[in-house]
Amino acid sequence: MMSPDLQPSPMPTPSAPPPPPLVEAEVEPRVAPAPAPAAVAPPRVTLGIRHKLIGLMVAAVFLIVGAVASYFPARQIGELRSGLRDRAAVYAKLGSQQLRSAVAFSDKETAREVLGALAKDPLIDGMALYSDKGELLHREGQLSALAQKTSAGFAEQRVYYLPGRVLATAPVKSLEGPRGTLVLELSTRSATEARNRLIRAALLVGLLALAAGTFASWLIARSLAERVERVARAATAVARGDLENSLSEAGPSDEIGVLTHGFNAMVGQLRTLIAHIQQSAKEESARLERLVQARTAELDSRNKDLRLVLDNVEQGFVTIDRNAAVSGEHSRIVESWLGPLAKGDSLWAYLDKSSPGIGENLDVGWTEIVEGVMPLALTLVQMPSAMRVGDRYLRLQYQPIGGEDFESCLVVLSDVTATVARERSEQEGKDLLALTSRLVDDRSGFVEFVSETRNLLLRISSNKSDLKLLKRDLHTLKGNTAIYGMAALSAVCHELEAHLENGTSDAATLDRARLGEQWSHTDAKLRQLMGDRQRRQIEIDEAQHRALLTAIKKGVGEASLSRMVESFALESLEQRLTRFGEQLAATAQRLEKGDVEIVVSAPDTYVSREQLADFWGVFSHVIRNAAAHGLESSEGRARAGKPSKARFDLRAGIRGERFYVELEDSGPGVDWDRVRQLAEERGLPSRTQADLTNALFVDGISTETNVSEIAGRGVGLSAVRATCERTNGTIEVVSKPGKGAVFRFCWPARELKSLTLVDWSEAS
Amino acid sequence: MGKKILIIDDSATVRQQVRMALESAGFDVEEAVDGADGKERIGKASNLAAVVCDVNMPRMNGIEMLESIKGDPRNAKLPIMMLTTEGQPALVKRAKAAGATGWIVKPFKADLLVAALHKVISAA
Predict the structure, then answer these.
(1) Is A11 at the interface with chain B, CB within 8 A?
(2) Whether ipTM exceeds 0.85
């Protein structure tokens, strides 16, 4: 009978609702087609159920047989013993009655007859009859020593069960008076034999029962255990993931049958469940795949948008590897600026095609970056940051991806043409403002500057062979334009000078286009600004006008009046030197050397503009030289114990037969040892002071090697010397070490025809 | 005592600038006025940590000096940084070929010079 609890659960039917999904949306997109549970090794069976069952059943049979085999013989033996006792008692009673007469008369014959009859019983070992005096009347068989001692007898009949025998004594009371004692002993041998037989029989039966029981147990255990083991093997297979096999349900409908059935049902349920999970996973996987495709499409679309944005901004992005080869995508705009670019191309070679020369600079800088000997922050700063392609200005920025040990670098090219144009326009505006201010302050000086600048530019553009002259003109132009605040033009001059110095260009190949460009903007505005006023005009100030009027009214001599009027067409040296003084102060400011004090002294001295035009053109170099070398830094002056404000004296006048222009500074003085050293290196005479002075004014000799925009190329002073020599002038340099130097330029006064001294005091 | 750096430049202004930058970073500074002077000082000094050297100098320029001292095995590991002006790749190549550790374009930022010196000294 099956217990209702053990009824197998019904198998799931196709119409049954599917179990709730175990796989949620976040399942991996790919699900293994079959479950692969971890293979757990089944536990090792140490004492099988079969053995336990057999052991148990054998033990039970053993106990039962043991109990039966010991109980029945014991009972049988008890009965035998009881029988012996009864028989001894009967014999004793019977004997004591029949022997009364023998005792009464000590009749031994009767005693022999009675005892002899009784002794026929084989169980009787011995018997004896004693008189009350202890006299043996008769004995049959053998009596034990103990039996013999009981001859005195007891008042009543007694039976003793002793080892191996039963002793009975009975008093024999004769009617006549005398008494006696009957002693008899029965052997228990027969009982012992019977007991032994019984035990043997019981053992035999017990062993047979045991064997039968064991066999039966084995049969039962075998049939039970085999089925349980089958279920166990099937369960182990399920544990390994094998759900394909079912158990045969043939066999008795007992609990194991129920178990087998339940097991099959469970495996069936599992199969259904796993199939369901696999189906769900498959569906989920397909769903995720669709999702990924949708996202990818969305991303592609976004990338396209991004690409569209990137391709439409004024910045080009190129990624390069450590070999500077284009490694990935790049913005289309780069190609529109610079031509086709392919992955794997060297970016530097590519840029060099559009801006010849930059490739080498990029290469050198990049080598330094890749070597990594110097900090990346430094080597990045030293990479070329700009390039020009036709009319387009491109800024270059470098963004290594991954810090010092970068694998790739983003190069950003930005079109800064508009910015450059705006900056240039702003610079031009500033320059123009400075020029306007100059024009208003000193019209004649300004007209002269413009005129000289135009001439210089003409000479620079047409000079394709004289490198020395070209360098000098560029240097003069650089200095003049710097002093007049035309920073942009001055910067272009500096750049061109650098090309000539480095040998990257010569007189024939120098690209002067930017110089012309830069000037043409300014010049056009200047022409508008100055208009007809570019023509020479004579201007007199109010004081001069008043002085002339006073002189006429006072009736001063014709010669004096004539000199006064002539002087109107001449240039006041006081005014000229004041102009240079302003330039000197401005230059000192630009060199960040602080404010300077300028003292000008050229009273009443006039000379025509033409007469000294060439000299004034190069005197700017002397001014720049003074600001650069004749003026220490603020700290230097403080260390030397000098006043914080440096003084410069600009003087002109006539001394004896000579007209002089001199500039005195309060700087460190000329380092003549250094000049001598430089002169020796150049193979120049260096013996006398005059030699050294000449050497100081030789092209390429400069004691300042920090080449700056202001001074330092050793070009300027040579131009001064050349001009002086051409106009019959001389140069003197007086140096007071640590205190300053005087640069004096002299001409024979009589050779300066226009030189005029006007004594305005006559008119006061 | 800081590490000793030799600055070779014929411009007192540059020497002064470099001295101020390096001293404020804790270095000891020695000066030389040109390549020949620099070579002599390198020969005499035994405890130089690095050299900062200009390229364009009278008597002996920086590259000539570099070529003449790098032959000496004692100077093989001495870091030498060259000061150059912009747009001189040919000079830089010559300097590197002659054994320059690195090059710095003038005008330079003091902190970058100091960072570069620290890096090349620790690598030497």
Answers:
(1) no
(2) yes
3-state secondary structure at position A341: coil
* Kind and range of the H or E run holding B50: strand B48-54
Element (H, E) at A757: strand A756-757
Can you tell me the distance from the alpha carbon of A323 to that of A301, in angstroms, rounded to the nearest whole number?
32
**DSSP strand E in A79-205: where?**
124-131, 136-141, 158-162, 165-173, 179-187
Residues in chain B with CB shorter than 8 Å from the CB of A502 are 87-88, 90-91
Helix/strand/coil (H/E/C) assignment for every residue in A18-59: CCCCCCCCCCCCCCCCCCCCCCCCCCCCCCCHHHHHHHHHHH
CA distance A477 to A457: 8
Closest approach of A629 to chain B, Cα-based (Å)? 11
pLDDT tens track for B47-83 = 899 999 988 777 788 888 998 888 888 888 899 999 8
For residue A707, what pLDDT is reported? 40
Which chain A residue lies closest to B34 (C-alpha atoms)?
A705
pLDDT at A702: 52
Residues of chain A with pLDDT under 70: 1-43, 45, 152-153, 311-312, 502-504, 531-536, 699-716, 762-764
Contact B11 A375 (CB under 8 A): no
Distance CA A378, CA B101 (A): 14
Identify residue A448 by its one-letter amino acid code. E
CA-based nearest residue in chain A for residue B113: A378
CA geometry: angle B21, B25, B27, nearest 5 deg: 95
DSSP SS3 for A542? helix
Q: Check B13 against A374: CB less than 8 A apart.
A: no
The reply to whether A504 touches chain B by the CB within 8 Å rule is yes
Could you tell me the pTM of the whole model? 0.47
Cβ neighbours of B100 in A, within 8 Å: none
For the stretch A369-418, pLDDT in tens is 998 888 998 999 889 988 888 888 999 999 998 887 888 999 999 988 88
The position carrying tokens 């004492």 is A47
Which residues, 6 or more positions from A354, have their beta carbon under 8 angstroms from its beta carbon? A337, A338, A339, A387, A389
Q: Do residues A103 and A137 make contact, with C-beta atoms less than 8 angstroms apart?
A: yes
List pLDDT tens digits, range A211-237: 888 888 888 878 788 888 888 888 888
* Cβ atoms of A435 and A485 closer than 8 Å: yes
Q: Is A29 left (phi over 0), alpha (psi -120 to 50) or beta?
A: alpha
Q: Do A504 and B112 touch (CB under 8 A)?
A: no
B89-97 helix and B62-70 helix, angle to the nearest 10 degrees: 20
- The 3-class secondary structure across A228-240, one letter per residue, is HHHHHHHHHHHHH
Of chain B, the end-to-end C-alpha distance in Å amounts to: 19
Decide: helix, strand or coil at residue A351.
helix
